[in-house]
């Protein structure tokens, strides 16, 4: 058994009108919680690593742990670079054994984004690795991504077609209303489904059949986790995310990959805070880290069932 690319995952997801969950990983407990949930649901999964996670854990350690997850579960797992800032980082991940990479050139002007993305695609494809890119910018803060609302831009449907044609990118992350971090919006959540429909239709008309689109900033910011955090001393007020039913609808309209990071952070923090409060005498890391792993597994299982619809995608 070995890691796979996202190619076949996305083909099945598009045809089945569901999305594959892409969960950000930083350590062993998060990896185990995610893959054990995916295994229990017979679901393929993407484990993704940000630039700051690479710096925190080292790509060699992460790759070895993900290899262990493949051996333990036997499910299809892709190892993906999330928001790669440059070709140097992309090369480092490909050399370490990643099967998928994202280059995020959305902060460059359009032509520079095209040129830099094409360079990444040429390098990755020559080594059997698939590439995701981003067009449009999501607001919010998460790891190395920090975009204020004034500079956030929605993806233009015609530009999306031109971008895919000129770069040869395998999947495209689009901006249609989601946001990075725990504070995604004020008031009601909104996804521009009309824009999503136009992007999907125009790609189809241009000959890009069943083209996989990606939704970043898609954590639901589970209120149960937020409440538990706050109950045991946190100050996470006003955090809001994307409702599961909206994400599920997007998955039926061409979104094949949904990124989830904040929900895992909240789950881990909630479980550890609760453990510390209930067992103040305990100091064995396996206790509170184990509690965090179990709660992450519970949260990911719920995501697969409600937001993603990827249960039994391994059939």
TrEMBL record:
<protein>
    <submittedName>
        <fullName>Ketose-bisphosphate aldolase</fullName>
    </submittedName>
</protein>
<feature type="binding site">
    <location>
        <position position="134"/>
    </location>
    <ligand>
        <name>Zn(2+) 2</name>
    </ligand>
</feature>
<feature type="binding site">
    <location>
        <position position="83"/>
    </location>
    <ligand>
        <name>Zn(2+) 1</name>
    </ligand>
</feature>
<dbReference type="InterPro" id="IPR050246">
    <property type="entry name" value="Class_II_FBP_aldolase"/>
</dbReference>
<dbReference type="InterPro" id="IPR013785">
    <property type="entry name" value="Aldolase_TIM"/>
</dbReference>
<feature type="binding site">
    <location>
        <begin position="217"/>
        <end position="219"/>
    </location>
    <ligand>
        <name>dihydroxyacetone phosphate</name>
    </ligand>
</feature>
<feature type="binding site">
    <location>
        <position position="216"/>
    </location>
    <ligand>
        <name>Zn(2+) 1</name>
    </ligand>
</feature>
<dbReference type="GO" id="GO:0005975">
    <property type="term" value="P:carbohydrate metabolic process"/>
</dbReference>
<feature type="active site" description="Proton donor">
    <location>
        <position position="82"/>
    </location>
</feature>
<keyword id="KW-0862">Zinc</keyword>
<feature type="binding site">
    <location>
        <position position="180"/>
    </location>
    <ligand>
        <name>Zn(2+) 1</name>
    </ligand>
</feature>
<feature type="binding site">
    <location>
        <begin position="259"/>
        <end position="262"/>
    </location>
    <ligand>
        <name>dihydroxyacetone phosphate</name>
    </ligand>
</feature>
<dbReference type="GO" id="GO:0016832">
    <property type="term" value="F:aldehyde-lyase activity"/>
</dbReference>
<dbReference type="Pfam" id="PF01116">
    <property type="entry name" value="F_bP_aldolase"/>
</dbReference>
<feature type="binding site">
    <location>
        <position position="104"/>
    </location>
    <ligand>
        <name>Zn(2+) 2</name>
    </ligand>
</feature>
<keyword id="KW-0479">Metal-binding</keyword>
<dbReference type="InterPro" id="IPR000771">
    <property type="entry name" value="FBA_II"/>
</dbReference>
<feature type="binding site">
    <location>
        <position position="181"/>
    </location>
    <ligand>
        <name>dihydroxyacetone phosphate</name>
    </ligand>
</feature>
<dbReference type="GO" id="GO:0008270">
    <property type="term" value="F:zinc ion binding"/>
</dbReference>
């Amino acid at each position: 058994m070995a890691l796979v690319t996202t190619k076949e995952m996305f083909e099945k997801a598009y045809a089945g009108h569901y999305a594959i969950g892409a969960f950000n990983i930083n350590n062993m407990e998060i990896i185990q919680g995610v893959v054990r949930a995916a295994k229990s649901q017979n679901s393929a999964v993407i484990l993704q690593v940000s630039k700051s996670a690479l710096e925190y854990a080292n790509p060699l350690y992460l790759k070895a742990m993900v290899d262990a997850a493949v051996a333990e579960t036997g499910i299809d797992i892709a190892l993906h670079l999330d928001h790669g800032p440059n070709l140097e980082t992309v090369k480092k991940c490909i050399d370490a054994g990643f099967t998928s990479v994202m280059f995020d050139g959305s902060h460059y002007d359009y032509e520079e984004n095209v040129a830099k993305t094409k360079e990444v695609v040429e390098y990755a494809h020559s080594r059997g690795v698939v590439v995701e890119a981003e067009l449009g910018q999501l607001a919010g803060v998460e790891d190395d991504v920090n975009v204020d609302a004034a500079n956030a831009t929605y993806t233009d449907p015609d530009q999306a077609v031109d971008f895919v044609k000129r770069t040869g990118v395998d999947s495209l992350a689009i901006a249609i209303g989601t946001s990075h971090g725990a504070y995604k919006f004020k008031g009601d959540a909104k996804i521009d489904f009309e824009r999503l429909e136009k992007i999907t239709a125009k790609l189809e008309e241009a000959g890009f059949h069943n083209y996989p689109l990606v939704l970043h900033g898609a954590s639901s910011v589970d209120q149960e986790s937020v409440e538990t955090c706050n109950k045991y001393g946190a100050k996470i007020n006003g955090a809001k995310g994307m409702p599961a039913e909206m994400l599920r609808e997007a998955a039926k309209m061409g979104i094949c990959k949904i990124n989830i990071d904040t929900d895992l952070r909240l789950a881990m923090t909630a479980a550890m805070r609760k453990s510390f409060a209930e067992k103040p005498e305990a100091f064995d890391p396996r206790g509170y880290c184990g509690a965090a792993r179990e709660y992450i597994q519970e949260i990911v299982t719920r995501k697969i069932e409600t937001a993603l619809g990827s249960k039994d995608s391994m059939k």
